[in-house]
Fold each of these.
Amino acid sequence: MNGSAKSRIRVLLVDDHAVVREGYRRLLERDESLTVVGEAASITETLQLDGELQPDVIVLDIALPGVSGIEILRRLVARRPAARVLMFSMYQDGIYATHAMNAGAYGYLSKASAPDLLVSAVRAVADGTRFISPDVQRAMTTRSATAQQMAHALSIRELEVLRLLAQGYGVEEIAVRLGLSPKTAANHQSSIKQKLGAGSALQLILIAQQFGLIAGG
């Protein structure tokens, strides 16, 4: 592929941190076959720019405040089934990748990956090729069937809340970190305990280790 404007892969970046988006933009545009045509920080901006720009690939952060990246992904695919979305996430465990791919993502790349892998992932997704970064692929094959089954009972937001609970954060702190109301965070905590049959903080920590959400699993 040459670097002419017509043949360039048009990319929309979605992340709530402007500095992070700038870093991604510079990395991607070092490759002459790629051009970043827009940036978004919220679900409203994402849906608006996707409708206006019809990008070839959307690079979407999974951990956004208020509404998770998975929910944005579902809405994008519902509105434009041809949308090709690459989830870009700090979560390396295969549980998140499975949720993303089931929701309609074409690829899943962990932020622990080498920088050049982002370029490769975008190009693969643009070509219609499914892409999962090697570290996530390894994680998907090492978790027990029981742990995978239990994890799939939780939503992406519940997995995020579980991870923070297991790290020792209180409900109010979790609410601030995830852009939720304290009541919503507390409801997620209750739902997690009910779904996993956990009656104590220690049980939640052990389960989070099984899922690979925190070290020790």
Amino acid sequence: MMKRRVVKPATERKAEIVDCALALFLTKGYAATTIADILARTRLSKGAFYHHFASKEDVLEAAMEHLVGAGIAAMRDVVDDEHLNEVARLERLFVRFAEWQNEINLDAINVDMLKPENAALSLRIKTSIDRAVVPVFSRIIERGTRSGEFDAPDPELAAEMLLFVSSAREPAVTNILKMAARGQIDDAMKLAEQQLAVQSKMMDRILGLPPDSIDLTKTKISQIRITALVAATRKAKTKRKA
């Protein structure tokens, strides 16, 4: 007797595909994961997969939206901490986000998104992430503006600009990663610190703060991110050789 196929609501089935694909992306890496891998893990037919998603890229976009939502929820204690002023809150969020990326091994995906051939996909992912993150930053900036800590007449625009400044560093991040992969760790750290110093100054200006109000170099983000990115890159190279 043939086993009857379990019919699930479309939303539940899509969530199942996203969860399985995300687990693969975070262990194997995005590039190394195939649709066949996803089908094997979900035990779905190819037709069932393409009924919900047009491509692996579409699955990644949905997975990242889900992941960032979970990340924001995990940082809720920082967002709601009444003992922090808004400058300290922003700095703490940048650090927590870097730590969170390491905890879930997000660099298994990030290292692939830094490749030139994935530029268009990387932009899609960034856009979906911004949709989730901008409201969080907007609320913080709005609170800081009401209290007189910031001078940002349009909190949403200010939030978008903060994220743009951060993402504009991607070419530098690629160079930093290449230097670190060649063993030039000290040089990579130095360049990363320079980039963070510039980003800090831009954040001051966007938020109408006095110079040197924000200093991301003191947060040790460089050490956190470079160490993790290098580890992810080496792991990806080892898998390709195997």
Amino acid sequence: MRAGVEKASGLQRVRGWFASLERTPFPFQEEAWANYTAGRNGLIHAPTGMGKTLAAGLGPMIEAMDVGESGKGQEITILWITPLRALAADTVESLQTAIDGLGLKWKVELRTSDTSASVRKRQRDRLPAILVTTPESLSLLISYPDVTERFRSLRCVVVDEWHELMGNKRGVQVQLGLSRLRAVQSELRIWGLSATIANMDDAIATLLGSVAAGTAVRIDAPDRKAIELESLLPDIIERFPWTGHLGTRMTEPVAKKIESAGSTLVFTNTRSQSELWFRALLTARPQWIGEIAIHHGSIDRKLRQTVEEMLRTGKMKAVVCTSSLDLGVDFWPVDQVMQIGGPKGIARMMQRAGRSGHRPGATSRIVCVPTQVMELVEFSAARLGMQRRATESREPVRLPLDVLAQHLVTVAAGDGFDEAQLLYEVRTTHAFATLTDEQWGWVMDFVKRGGPSLVAYPHFARVRQLEDGRWLIASEPLARMHRMNIGTIASDGAVAVQFVKGRHLGSVEESFAAKLKAGDTFAFAGRTVQFVRLHEMTIQVRLATSKRGTVPRWMGGKLPMSPNLADAVRIRLDEADRGEFVDAEMQRVRPILELQRRWSRLPRIGEVLIEQIRTRDGHHHFLYPMQGRLAHEGLAALLAHRLGGRGPITATFNDLGIELLSPIVLAETAEDWMAALSPDRLLEDIVAALNTGELAKRHFREIARVAGLLVPMRPGAHRSVRQLQASSGLFFDVFNEFDPNNLLLEQSRREVLQQQLEFNRLRAALVNVGQESLVIVTPHKLTPLAFPLWAETIGTQQVRSESAAARIERVALQLEAAADAER
């Protein structure tokens, strides 16, 4: 009984603190605290705004109060890992508020790449009671000596927003870091926090690995979060829309909607789009200068932090942002969320909607703004998906040997490792549970001497063995260089942007910087600036007198539609084919869909529609598998390869379909198309169709960087992307010729297929096609579904003296006239 009374004392203090705030803990929070204090690992699954932070953070505090450690605060107890630096700062504030309210003597600190050198040095000597950090900074901490002593008092690791990490290499980096910490502290408890994903059991297994996953608990908060979706409907509906044709024509309705609320987050899908919309809103409402801001990952940290603080304190009317603000905390006073363009995923829409009404019991509201009229169908489908909670899965990464090689050098730079012990640790992770002795031996040989083809170059011998058998980093200079390059985040190379007189604005990608000439203007960080010079990887600019200018393009310019959202779109189109237009969005696009059905037909569930149309450009073959952009990219290349023997083919694709343009008819019958769409010999044909060797060669740059073959950052020096690509290409060619069994080559090919081409999804799509009916129609004109694919093809071609845009506009007007003539 005495233990029960002691345990209750900490819990009672927490309940008392909640009561002082006129709140009551949720049952799922108390369930999490009870399971933590009982010594269990687990994952807390709760919708945005339900209080996951306190559910995970208060358990260790309750335990500390129960055992009388709440007044010490001298040793690290909780390590909190978060994927975003902005989220890290907010987590610190949230946890510190709880600590102060409970009267604990603990201190919470932040450690990211933005943390000052003096603070990082102090933290290496003594960590605070709670340290909030990122996956990269965790690896850095492990890379310093005395890691065992530093983390001996650690009791709990919380991995925040695990759904954002589990499907990429940063998640693998976390898994390896946790395996090292478990070796240091055998009684360590690990808890994950996650929003809704479809494969929650996989999320638990991936986070906890073989040591703890079998006995872990999953705690689910009631998912009663109400989400309301409203769309701003265009006044005029063109029946032949194309990608982005609305552009910023919806600026005035967006501005009026912003005026109706206290504060608004305006989400865009890309950084380029955020720059365009910020400029458009300021042009429409110049009096908003100082009241609206822009926020994305390439803007300088200090500028972002200023925006975040003004948003937190309610001083911002609106912030135009990207996924940099997808993840937030409970106390941001955001009244309204807007989504510019299709969300491309149900979970993404729910995540963004949850930034408003970000408290238990409140309704989240999101206002959607189309950049193409057919995106209204996507909004309607997203509402359906949210109602059904049809969120997407996140597939864990397996056997990324580049990350493993980096981890070996990281551990060697710290306390060093015993090979057998480290192999055991690594195999406890989900990512490397199936690692073979041969693969381990290859990675060890790679870090010991660079493998068989690089043995003549001493600087690739990164670890050395001591007499007692332990492995350490080969030298301290190599350790310093390794720490500068720890991480797995891919990029196109960052070039700083700053004013001539020195104020830093952020960074753009090197590929954009390389195209600038003196006097060029471009929009960046909400300003229009003029390029002066490129000096030592820094673009120097001055404010431009003109407000016109290009917008930088960053990687990831087009998000692919998720399979779940694509399925919901098919449901909406199938309903429309039966004459059911179930909401305002579908009613608004009804003229387009009815014209599509009149001139051709609408894609139905259980069938694949193929339209064959003849124009002056040739024979157009439009297919609508409706599997999303990435799967269609591979499918378009596959079909062009399989049918290319009959004549030259131009292939185009979007989220809904594919166009193959040829001088001749490529396939006459359904049987011909079924043969071209067969999943047989898929791997061989896709490799031949896409020159995956060249794709793998380019992709190899990031693998080589993570594995330590390429070193972008050296003390006092930075290598350009062009230099890195040339070096990685040289490595790729050398390995192909002299070390063909190099496992990094095989990994590069595998990742190209899985990530860039979504090979598994493509295979599943072809299997589904084989089970569906093919319906071939021959319309006399371009249909509303075909038109955006045709326009995209025309947009990439030189059209005599007529611009592509002018021709697209002209043909659209002709088709509109033809449709009107039928009335």
